[in-house]
Amino acid sequence: MITGKTKLTGLIGDPVEHTLSPHMHNAGFKYFNLDYVYTPFQVKKEHLQEAIYGARSLGIKGLNVTIPHKIEVIKYLDVLEDNAELIGAVNTIKFGDEIKGYNTDGLGAVRGIEELIPVKNKKVIVLGAGGASRAISFQILLRGAGKVIIANRTIEKAYNLQKNLINRLDAEVGAVGLGEDLKEELEDTDILINTTPIGMYPNINQKPLITSEMMHEGLIVNDIIYNPLETGLLREARLAGAQTISGLKMLIYQGIESFKIWTGREPPVEVFEEAMKEVL
Ligand code: NAP
Predict the structure, then answer these.
(1) Which residue numbers are catalytic?
(2) Residue 1 CB contacts under 8 Å (≥ 6 apart), including other chains
(3) Helices 247-263 and 105-113, interaxial angle, to 10°?
(4) What is the mean pLDDT of the chain?
(5) Is the pTM of this model over 0.85?
(6) How many angstroms does the Cα of residue 195 sit away from the middle of ligand 1?
């Protein structure tokens, strides 16, 4: 029951109608019997500043931040935690004496992959060079990946991210387009992560960038799309005998990391998974 003592958390973005986060977080609050509630707020770009300062005035404890506000919101925060500062984007805010920004997207993806294999010293290809690619590439290198290759349709964007990663982390990073170079790089790659929207609902029959004959049995393929749970890319991976990870893992683990930031408690992964199964 919502009372005068209930603590409010939520999500700001535009659109937010299809978000699954309330199911996860409210299930977590129920599990720990915490007097918290999580609700989505649709916030237009031109109202972002008012939304952040308004949330502080209203005593909101924490917010997730999604498209299109992840970068812009930084202007209105007092301080950034190291990951968010490196990545240059925020997906979680905690309101206290200061308004502090965090980024749990990359942490979520890496935790999902490490259920199967440690990323330390592994060669990783990341398809795409947008916001999600940036968060994951930084985090996977911070976690000790041996080499990351950014593969992107617009090669300039791949070069930009490569330069950024090398400047900030002094890491081994390559950049390729989506042609023959990518095929060659795949031959000795351990982990392939798709961060492009190819194959996402409603375009579920869109041809994946990588097909089974380009994959090998030792490969681990993580598609960060979670609708559908098995994308065309993951079907191809299964055909090649490779191991697969659905985008639900990243979604769940980034949520668990946000929940920890707000409440100091870590919900069991099964609690978030069960909540998702009910809606997916
Ligand atoms: P973004 O910043 O817009 O980046 C999209 C990337 O995909 C760009 O590099 C773009 O290449 C590439 N791309 C788009 N359409 C393509 C096509 N037809 N062929 C080849 N490349 C294409 O988006 P984002 O924020 O990184 O999000 C990307 C995806 O990740 C979305 O599907 C989102 O739902 C998903 N996501 C999942 C989670 C999770 O928790 N599981 C979290 C965040 C995001 P160009 O540079 O050439 O345009």
Answers:
(1) 70
(2) none
(3) 120
(4) 97
(5) yes
(6) 5
- Those residues whose C-beta lies under 8 Å from the C-beta of residue 263, and which sit 6 or more positions away, are 28, 29, 32, 34, 36
DSSP summary character for residue 121 = T
What CA–CA distance (Å, rounded) separates 221 from 225?
12
Strand partners, 174: 149
Q: Are 101 and 79 in contact (CB under 8 A)?
A: yes
For the record, the structure tokens of 113 come out as 């992959």
Task: Give 94's strand partners.
Answer: 62, 100
187-235 residue pLDDT tens: 999 999 999 999 999 999 999 999 999 999 999 999 999 999 999 999 9
Question: For position 97, what pLDDT does the model report?
Answer: 96
Q: Is it the case that residue 280 has pLDDT exceeding 90?
A: no
Q: How far apart are CA 276 and CA 255, in angstroms?
A: 12
**At residue 257, what are phi and psi to the nearest 5 degrees?**
-65, -40
pLDDT at 70: 96
Give the C-alpha separation, 259 to 144, whole Å. 25
Residues with CB under 6 A from ligand 1: 105, 128-133, 152-154, 157, 195-198, 200, 224-226, 247, 250-251, 254
- 3-state secondary structure (DSSP) of residue 233: helix
